[in-house]
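Weekly structure sync, notes
Attendees: PL (lead), two postdocs, one rotation student
Agenda item 3: pending single-chain targets
PL asked that the sequence for the first pending target be pasted directly into the notes so everyone works from the same version. It is reproduced below exactly as submitted, 606 residues in total.
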Amino acid sequence: MAPPILKLDDIFLSFGGAPLLAGAALQVEPGDKICLVGRNGSGKSTLLKIAAGLVEAQSGEVFRHPASTVRYLEQAPDFADYKTVQAYAEAGLGPGDDPYRVTYLLSHLGLTGEEDPKNLSGGEARRAALARVLAPEPDILLLDEPTNHLDLPTIEWLEGELQKSRSALVLISHDRRFLEKVSTATVWLDRGTSRRLDRGFAHFEAWRDQVLEAEELEQHKLGKAIEREEHWLRYGVTARRKRNMRRLGELQTMRSQYRGHKGPQGSVQATISDAQESGKLVIEADKITKTYGDRPIVTPFSIRVHRGDCIGLVGPNGAGKTTLLKMLTGQLAPDTGTIKLGTNLEIATLDQKREDLNLDDTLAHYLTDGRGENLLVNGEQRHVTGYMKEFLFQPEQARTPIKNLSGGERARLMLARMLARPSNLLILDEPTNDLDIETLDLLQEVVAGFPGTVILVSHDRDFLDRTVTSTIAPAVPDAPDGRWIEYAGGYSDMLVQRKGAADERKKAEKAEKAKAQDTAVAEPSKAKGKLSFKQKFALENLPKEMAKAESEIAKREEKMADPNLFTKDPATFNRLAAEMEKFRDGLTKMEEEWLELEMLREELEG
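Predicted structure, written out during the meeting:
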């Protein structure tokens, strides 16, 4: 086994309350592809920052091989000293690194390098930061949510880059499919400590469940042992005569272990508030279009959305997903065509940009809209702290400003508010961003069991496969031209259908080509054993036409033989040269045709 190039051991860190990390460990060897998983708030990002040297642990061992280079993906890049994205990305290169890598990476990440960092969106800033950390091909790559704000083609490209990279990798991500494809080992951060599985994320959830079941069994056995010892203490014959101090001490230790055991963080428990049932037909779009300038965003597109449908919208960034979504929900009028919304629609929206959040609001104020301490959930009055606990918030957080929450906690808070409001049409724009695996599971169950209608935009392939009944995607995935197609099923089903359609096209083209070749071969044989009149005429007249062409060529060669012609009359020289070339081309074609006919005649006669 190769010696570690990064090692964290027995890491302890607390911010004043319960320890965030208490005995956590992480060991990275050359070539490792490790995914770091755990609930929101379990300390994953903090442990990664300790590994990068950005946060100092209060105790524990931190070792980085002195010859190893480390790059950490920043969540909020600092562009202050850079005039262009290219300059920012190149600043991450070390001596001897290839500057072309920056251009290559920026191109695949959808950036030119000439962008002004001051004007970048959140997604563009993330792409620039990715280019900066990937370009030097460091010994250790520490990536915290690298797929956020990336579209599906870019995520799939990034998967390939990381799979073939020689860098050791420690990765945090909510994207199951991405983790499954990239990781070869899993570190689970749970209740301050860490456990390692030397297999990729695909095997994690079954292993986690086994660990938790074994832990629960051990706690059950400990509880039974305490009961036996307490029974002995109260009723044992020896106990009535004399206390056994050793057994008393062991009993106290067991009680302490049992009471001090902190079980796994609970699961989010919630159901969505039902609204009045909508009409059977929820949305009907008939030949709708939208163009911005000369660029078509949506060419004539029609769809009928019925109650109970769950529709996914996918495509590269800039393809027009949000525009199409806004048209389908009546927020944006089409240039042509019609949109008809059904009756009794109650719409609830989860926006990826978190525009609904006032960061100075407290959690309680946000959930109740400032209407006191209670909110109405499914027609029932609920106290806000009780409702918060269902989404893993502690009662003391009720007065906490939203700006103090992590990205995952903010996503969970928005989910809590959306689920409390009566609705029969859910609009989910990138709902999986920043959610941990367990909360994602809850959202999947909510969406799959929702009696109303759902339209969602997502780059999470696993989430799409588990929830949607149909998928709308650009007809041309690599170069969207405004044409959209609805496919039955989830993302994987869409890929199969696309491949099938492409295979059918290739098959049809191949059949057409074969048919044309068969026709060409069969044409000379139509006369069944003799040349056709047309073929006979060509065979007899082609020698005369060839002789005439040779004569014309000779005349022009004779005129062009004059050494002074080009100097005196260049236009005539050029005209003669072009004519001679034309006659030569014609002569070559006639010679080939005559030869084919002569061979056919000999074959038919012999």
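Discussion points:
- The first strand starts at residue 6 and ends at 13.
- Residues 570-605 form the longest helix (36 residues).
Action: rotation student to compare against the earlier draft before next sync.
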